[in-house]
Design a protein that fits this description.
The complex is a heterodimer of chains A (578) and B (1056). With 578 residues, chain A is mainly α. Chain A has 20 helices and 14 strands. In chain B, helix 8 packs antiparallel against helix 9. Classes of the chains: A mainly alpha (578), B mainly beta (1056).
Chain lengths: 578, 1056
């Protein structure tokens, strides 16, 4: 027994010795991540700038911030939601019906997520600015340029938010997280908010070089064009009911100067063929002033492709498959009709339903075949694969037309089908040169210089007239009867009133299905009259629109997402009549 | 692996050869019989002062042992009360053992120590193992369903038993509600470890329900603790014991199927709905059906509907009349095999067990198989003062469960909803799919299962420990245990390229998602027992260190030239390859102590203290302190009870304690930044908005600044988490009051427990205003919850000592939680509206509208509050706030998805060699979604529906609850309301089992067989449900899960 005891004592001692608690045991460092100090170094700060650029392209089908097909196109008289009936992504149906006051809206997708995604982009830009400001020019020679780029990006996101929601909190780089939660969306008046956003672009304009080695970055002209856009929207002064109460001449003069800076630079021009704005291989071409960059085969799993319009490909076509969203309205298709002189049918364009005339033979603007998929016409410039009515997903509800501009043919190197949906690596243009021309034209018209607007509009129309090379059928003939001409004294009387009508029509045709339509209507103060007139006719053709009605003083803007109001304990003020 | 094998070898060898012989005086013999006078083979017989000197009875109940005069012999057998007999001058000692029906003397593991059940003062449930050991699913968690009061189990019919969850006393926190499992002393929070155990290898399961019982486990015990002890060789009682269990089951989901329309019927329903909407049915469905009707919307008459002969007009695809459930499911088979060998002598014992389960799955191409092995061994030296042992469990499982289609819709749901006009195959024998207009973008479920047939999820688990225990002086024991919880996970996902109708995938991919988890725990404890007079003390002190490491590696590759199972390896791809990985770690360091006090077997008390440090919290808040105190009064041992013979046991228990929770990210208190080159939101949990669309949501930091469109991109960094240095422990405090009783010599036994618990400083990661920006969410100590309830169990043991025996038991339990404190800005993340919030409600509350039948005519619509979409035949929603309009404010809390009451009934019968068991359990007071109502009462343009749509409201058919058919649903009738959220209570006869044990004379002729039992068992046989629930099975509330099957099993159990 004594021996046993000795063994046991030794074993017990061994145990006791090894039982030692150690405080260091509880210190575990995170892996694969960095602290704030680690990333705000001169070596890493350019990565924050890159990440901020990535931020303006980081969106999703159900929370878009790049393409405005939902907010600007479906919500206007250009397009229907499409897809499989009204309940398929019901969130968009509610927009189309101007019905955002009913409880239990869809799945909470779209505008609440868009709000969130823009503020994500803003936070990336602000973090980069904060980090850049902590460095000296010696440590980081590009400091000022990069800050200017970041303020440009921050301005872009705030501008987009303002178009959608009107009253938004403006987030400055100096705010802490707690301070951000104290920033109201009514801290500034409407006009002050425009000025604050404009300041970012002005800073960019003053500090950016005329050209940048990387085409994806903002430069001086990009800033000038964007500032012109801000001032153009600002010029149409709105009251609290969103009515346009005054058109500010001084702001319009700024628009003229700023657009002239871009035009006069000779750095940009229209693409020879309208199609090139919508085709792979022409990214960052002469017409692209500012674009969100997308890429493919870049080491990411899908590629940094854009899938924001991934639901919009034709449904029945075997090479595409899904899901038939974003279908052109009859009203918009009719808007492409021209008279025998090649001018729009300003007053009678919508008198007939498309079923009552032969779309292949009536005179039309050639941009129709760049914009709309029509039975028997080449789809996306492929004359061996014609669009077929059988590709339409739910023709009983949404008709047979299909959208084309945002899509790529299935054999394009920029095309990627993933699951049922499709993405493309083609950039999304935010401002292209045609927009600069038409912004200047609009500013001339609204400042009583409508004569100066005519050549600008004609430049756009002449390019359209020349853009028939890619839309031909296999036998070399045109699928439609293209009749288009510029405005001249032999076919029209260029009064201010006529010029305004011509400008607005031109914008609709040039940017059809690209998204600006709804925002144009609100800017001009004619959303209610235009859209209710549209609905009166269109609902006779499309019964799903039977109950749709646009309410002035409310439907010009989205409601501030309720959860944002809740998260700030009611600090944000809701838009009127929601 | 080799190391493990080596250590197994060592222990088996140690166990086999370390017996030592001692000198003897004389031999004594005898026979041990049970309460009926039958021989009791395998009874352990040993000398009290020399526990290593013992033997066990042979098949005839006989034994012989060398003794000295004055020795005390102890006879013990599980389930019987041990008996001590002093050796005088006899040569023969015959003993009759009495059955320990109340199991009062049973030893219960309560956390680093054990106790007699009769001395327990907390709410600790001992699970009766016998009915569980012959389960068919092979999933221990599913078998526990309904058996343990206070333990709530939800399950699905997936072959592996995945998607089951277990809750002890309901939901206590807002995050993870998984209990802590202690498997042979090794702690783990991973339910899959528990689920991988073979039920027949489990010796005992104890459930520590209240905080006082669990507090010795401290920080991880806030959701209760489940202690599992597996069998070891000590039961063999010195001999060699061989046990073989085999069973074979057939499973069918047929009783759980939804009745759906056939091709022709669906056309009729679509016609009616279109006409109601004023839309020509041909405009929406003309490509699928030809409608012959009078084209008069005011007075529509249908002459006939015919299915167009070809899908999408493709002559290669003749239209089908497919019953997708029939096509998607087959009978499933489950084979179970368990083989156990155990043996030992006076000082050593070992057990080796191998188990195999194979489930062929009812849903085509699903399957599950698991092989598991266990080695438990221990040996004692120096008169038993040193004990060294090990427990180890290894399991390897492969599973293929339901697959998602291209749009991520799982196949069980597709089998219900896909249009019947799509055939399974085209004329070419290829899988058919939607084609042409009028169809949804969903895939053929049989095809989806088929093309995913090479997918596999492999899991390997090793759980075990090695320990040494030293008795330094009598009753002072030091124990050191090193435990391991190790697992690997490997999901092989082959996405084949295919074309099916208008849906296709052009590029095939292989994804390998692997991770490795390793948790090492080391605990050292000291136990000391001292008895002076009527005072008895038990002391426990210990420290424990736990280190968890988790590493994840994801590799994907695209574009494989050939689509064969063998070709899908990463290197064979010719397209883009990508790899992602993460690594994380956490640690816990704890000290704990416990004192138990027993005065004269009348007054019991205990005090526990535990202090835990966690690496997950900041330096200032690292440690949590978890005390508990309990008191017990064994009233029946008081002198004033002596006269009351009918009361055999009466005990009052009061326990109060605190436990903690640290279930947050490993680095939750820190602000973090990451380089995210190009992931989508689907790659990083918690970033996206919607599971499916997340794969198309760029969240990266790389950007094509150069406009080169491809190649390597410049990239940067992004914030992923906001810092909160003040983050600290979440605490749960609980008071438990209980009473245990036994009447009529323990023929009637029961217990009642009441508990009240409050969880405060709940760890939440609340959403914040988006303006704060990206990656700024952080963990906070926010909410407070209350949870209270009770459990009652009763058992009656009748017909003892007769040919006919029976045992009846029942239990009822109730738990109800409510949120009592929640930061204001977080409340919108929970059900509620501007005037009613979740405060005072259960976290699992359902919120919605109240309905009041259908509008019968325009006058009723006009009289009613203004309701968008109201019309005759539409659902009428109640204007709860009386403001004359139906809006978001007209909602209220309708109920909770957790039941208010859970109950069971267990009947065991025995007649001679026959035995039978009936077990049923049910729940009451649960509200939930009725998926069949959704598909039977509403028409859907893209999905198939049930025949209920033919009873829809029309001006002629007004006596119905089914609203007029519409494809537009302008009344928004699928909104949450009591129309779809109904009473989902049920009672199920879960098990009926009949067994037959071969009589001894037959067995003796077979030779060497101790016991041979065959049985027949049916599961999920009959159920009763609320009339509000229209679906076939209230346990099927999610159509995307494989239904819980009805099962028939035949099996045998043999002991050698």
């Amino acid at each position: 027994m004594r021996t046993n005891n000795k063994h046991i004592v030794i074993l017990a001692l061994l145990l006791t010795v090894t039982v030692v608690g150690c405080e260091d045991f509880l210190s575990v460092e995170p892996r694969g991540t960095l602290s704030t100090e680690g990333i705000t170094t001169p070596e890493n700060v350019d990565g924050l700038v890159t990440a901020a650029y990535a931020g303006i392209g980081n969106d999703e089908m159900i929370g878009p911030i790049t393409s405005m097909w939902v907010y600007g196109s479906v919500r206007s008289d250009d397009a229907y939601k499409g897809g499989g009936g009204v309940t398929d992504v019901a969130d968009i149906n509610f927009y189309e019906q101007y019905n955002l006051t009913q409880p239990q809206q869809g799945a909470g997708w779209m505008h609440p997520l868009t709000w969130k995604n823009y503020y994500k982009a803003i936070s990336r830009a602000n973090f980069a600015i904060r980090s850049l400001e902590n460095l000296t020019e010696d440590e980081f020679p590009l400091k000022t340029t990069r800050i200017a780029e970041m303020r440009f990006l921050r301005g872009h996101s705030h501008f987009m938010l303002k178009m959608l929601f009107k009253k938004i909190p403006y987030i400055h780089e100096d705010y802490t997280n707690n301070e951000i939660l104290e920033v109201s969306n009514v801290e500034y008046t409407n006009d002050e908010l425009w000025d604050i956003i404009a300041e970012d672009f002005q800073f960019a304009l003053d500090n950016l070089p005329p050209t940048q080695p990387e085409v994806g970055r903002a430069n001086q002209y990009t800033a000038a064009a964007y500032l012109a856009k801000v001032r153009l929207y600002q010029a149409y002064e709105q009251n609290d009911q969103h009515e346009v109460v005054n058109i500010n001449q001084q702001k319009l003069n700024e628009v003229i100067d700023l657009t002239q800076m871009v035009i006069g630079s000779m750095e940009y021009s229209l693409q020879p063929d309208f199609a090139e704005n919508y085709l792979y291989g022409f990214d960052n071409g002469v017409e692209s002033i500012f674009a969100i960059q997308f890429s493919i085969d870049d080491g990411t799993s899908l590629g940094r492709i854009s899938t924001v319009t991934g639901l919009n490909y034709p449904h029945g076509a075997p090479q595409y498959g899904c899901c038939g969203f974003h279908q052109p309205s009859e009203n918009m298709v009719n808007a492409f009709r021209t008279d025998t002189d090649g001018l729009p049918l300003f007053n009678t364009f919508n008198d007939q339903s498309v079923e009552d005339y032969d779309i292949d033979s009536v005179p039309v603007d050639p941009r129709l075949d760049h914009t709309v998929g029509i039975d028997g016409h080449p789809y996306k410039y492929q004359n061996d694969i014609l669009y077929s009515n059988s590709w339409a997903r739910d023709p009983g509800v949404y008709g047979f037309f299909s959208s084309m501009k945002e899509q790529q043919a299935a054999d394009s190197p920029g095309f990627k089908k993933e699951g049922p949906f499709i993405g493309t690596s083609v950039n999304i243009d935010i401002i292209r040169y045609a927009d600069v021309l038409l912004m200047q034209a609009e500013a001339y018209i609204e400042t009583g210089q409508h004569q100066l607007a005519q050549p600008l509009i004609n430049e756009v129309r002449n390019r359209a007239a020349a853009s028939t090379g890619r839309t031909q059928l296999a036998d070399g003939s045109d699928p439609s009867n293209y009749v288009i001409s510029e405005y001249n004294s032999s076919n029209s009387v260029w009064t201010e009133e006529f010029a305004r009508q011509a400008l607005r029509w031109e914008r609709r045709l040039e940017f059809a299905m690209e998204g600006p339509r709804f925002f144009d209507l609100v800017r001009w103060g004619i959303a209610e009259e235009t859209l209710n007139a549209y609905l009166a006719d269109e609902s006779l053709r499309r019964s799903f629109l039977n109950n749709a009605e646009f309410t002035a003083g409310r439907d010009e803007y989205y409601p501030i997402p309720q959860q944002e109001i809740d998260f700030t304990k009611g600090l944000y003020q809701q838009n009127p009549n929601y | 692996m080799e190391k493990i094998l080596l250590s197994i070898c060592v222990f088996v060898c140690v166990a086999a050869f370390s017996g030592t012989a001692y000198a003897q005086e004389r031999t004594i013999e005898g026979t041990v019989t049970d309460h009926l006078g039958d021989p009791l083979p395998g009874t352990t017989v040993f000398i009290k002062e020399q526990p290593n000197k013992g033997t066990s009875t042979n098949p005839d109940g006989n034994y012989s042992i060398e003794v000295e005069e004055g020795d005390i012999l102890i006879f013990s057998f599980v389930g019987f009360i041990s008996k001590e007999v002093e050796v005088t001058d006899q040569l023969t000692i015959d003993v009759q053992l009495q059955m320990d029906t109340g199991q009062l003397e049973e030893i219960v593991v309560v956390g680093y120590s054990s106790k007699k059940k009769v001395d327990l003062t907390g709410a600790i449930e001992t699970v009766e193992m016998e009915p569980i050991t012959t389960g068919t699913s092979g999933n221990i968690m599913q078998t526990l369903q309904g058996r343990v009061p206070g333990l709530y189990v939800e399950k699905s019919g997936t072959p592996s038993g995945a998607s089951s969850r277990i809750l002890i006393r309901g939901v206590n926190t807002l995050g993870n509600n998984d209990p802590l499992y202690i498997i042979d002393g090794v702690p783990t929070k991973r339910p899959e470890v528990f689920q991988s155990l073979s039920p027949s290898t489990i010796e005992s399961i104890q459930v520590l329900k209240d905080a006082a019982s669990a507090s010795v486990y401290g920080s991880r015990a806030s959701n209760g603790v489940i202690i599992v002890t597996t069998k070891d060789g000590s039961r063999a009682g010195g001999g060699l014991d061989i046990q073989l269990n085999v069973s074979n089951s057939v499973q069918s989901e047929r009783p759980q199927r939804f009745d759906m329309l056939n091709a022709q019927q669906r056309g009729e329903a679509l016609w009616r709905a279109s006409v109601n909407d004023g839309v020509s049915p041909a405009s929406g469905y003309g490509e699928i059906y030809t409608f012959d009707w009078n084209n008069d919307f005011n007075n529509p008459v249908l002459n006939g509907v015919s299915v167009n002969p070809f899908v999408g007009g493709n002559t290669n695809v003749p239209a089908g009349d497919t019953d997708w459930q029939e096509e998607s499911y087959d009978l499933g088979q489950v084979r179970n095999l368990d083989f156990t060998v155990s043996g030992g002598n006076e000082s050593s014992s070992a057990l080796i067990s191998v188990g195999y389960v194979k489930n062929t799955g009812m849903l085509k191409y699903t399957n599950y198989d698991r092989i598991s092995a266990r080695v438990n061994a221990q040996t004692r030296k120096f008169d038993g003062r040193l004990e060294i042992g090990m427990n180890s469990i290894f399991s390897n499982s492969n599973e293929l469960l339901q697959s998602p289609d291209l749009g991520s819709a799982p196949t069980p749901g597709l089998a219900i909803t896909l249009a019947p006009t799509i055939p399974v195959f085209t004329n070419n024998g290829e899988y058919a799919g939607p084609l042409g207009s009028g169809y949804s973008d969903r895939n053929n479920p049989v095809h989806m299962q088929y093309i995913n047939r090479w997918d596999n999820t492999n899991r390997k688990n090793v759980v075990g420990d090695v320990y040494a225990q030293i008795e330094l002086i009598p009753e002072l024991r030091l124990k050191s245990t090193v435990g391991v919880d190790y697992s690997t996970y490997r999901f092989k996902n082959i996405e084949q390229a295919f074309t099916e109708g208008f849906i296709s995938r052009s590029l095939n991919t292989l994804g390998l998602f692997t991770n490795e988890f390793m948790s090492i725990s080391w605990s050292n404890t000291v136990n000391y027992q001292i008895t002076t007079g009527n005072n008895s003390f038990q002391f426990l002190a210990g420290i424990e260190a736990i280190q968890d490491n988790f590493d994840e590696l994801i590799a994907t590759a695209e574009n494989f030239a050939t689509q064969s199972e063998e070709f899908f390896v990463l290197s064979a791809a010719s397209g883009t390859k990508q790899s992602l990985g993460t690594s994380t770690s956490s640690r816990l360091l704890s000290q704990f102590g416990k004192v138990d006090y027993n005065y004269d077997d009348r007054y019991l008390a205990s005090l526990t203290l535990r202090r835990d440090g966690s690496s997950r919290f900041g330096d200032d808040n690292r440690y949590g302190f978890f005390p508990s105190a309990t008191f017990g009064w064994r009233i029946n041992n008081e002198s004033f009870m002596e006269e009351m013979d009918e009361i055999s046991n009466l005990k009052l228990r009061i326990a109060a304690g605190r436990v903690g929770n640290q279930d947050i990210g490993d680095f939750a208190s820190l602000g973090l930044f990451e380089a995210r080159y190009g992931p989508t939101a689907a790659n990083i949990p918690g970033v996206g908005s919607n599971g499916f669309f997340d794969q198309y949501y760029n969240i990266g930091t790389a950007y094509d600044l150069n406009g080169s469109d491809s190649g390597s991109l410049p990239s940067g960094f992004v914030s992923t988490q906001g810092a909160n240095p003040a983050l600290k422990w979440e605490n749960t405090d609980e008071l438990n009051i209980g009473i245990d009783f036994g009447l009529l010599e323990e023929r009637v036994v029961g217990s009642f427990d009441y508990f009240f618990r409050e969880t405060s400083d709940i760890l939440i990661r609340p959403p914040v205003a988006s303006a704060v920006g990206e990656g700024q969410l952080r963990f906070l100590n926010g909410a407070t919850k209350e949870n209270k309830g009770w459990e009652l169990s009763l058992g009656y043991d009748g017909g003892r000592d007769k040919d006919f025996t029976y045992y009846v038991s029942t239990s009822l339990s109730r738990f109800k939680d409510k949120i009592t404190k929640l930061p204001e800005e977080v409340r919108t993340a929970f059900p509620g509206n501007a005037i009613k919030d979740i405060l005072g409600q259960s976290e699992l509350s359902v919120f919605g509208y109240r309905t009041d039948g259908l509008f019968q005519n325009q006058a009723e619509v006009d009289d009613h509050a203004s309701q968008v979409g109201a019309a005759p035949g539409r659902i009428k929603y109640v204007d709860l706030n009386g403001d004359g309009q139906i809006d978001a404010l007209d909602q209220e809390f309708i109920g909770t998805t957790l039941p208010g009451l859970e109950y069971n009934l267990n009947i065991q019968l025995g007649y001679k060699n026959f035995d039978a068991r009936i077990f049923g359990s049910g729940i009451a007071g649960r509200t939930g979604f009725d998926p069949y109502r959704f598909y039977n009462n509403f028409i859907r343009g893209r999905d198939n529906v049930g025949p209920g749509v033919f009873d829809a409201w029309t001006p002629e058919n007004t006596d119905t609850s089914i609203p007029a058919l519409t494809l537009a649903d302008s009344n928004n009738e699928t909104r949450p309301s009591d129309y779809l959220l109904v009473n989902t209570s049920y009672f199920k006869i879960r098990n009926v089992e009949i067994g037959y044990t071969l009589p001894e004379d037959v067995m003796s002729r077979l030779g060497g067989i101790n016991r041979f039992r065959v049985f027949l068992k049916g599961e999920n046989l009959i159920w009763f449900k609320s009339s509000e629930f229209n679906g076939p099975d209230p346990e099927r509330v999610d159509i995307n899960q494989i239904p819980v099957p009805t099962t028939f099993t035949v099996g045998a159990s043999i002991s050698l």
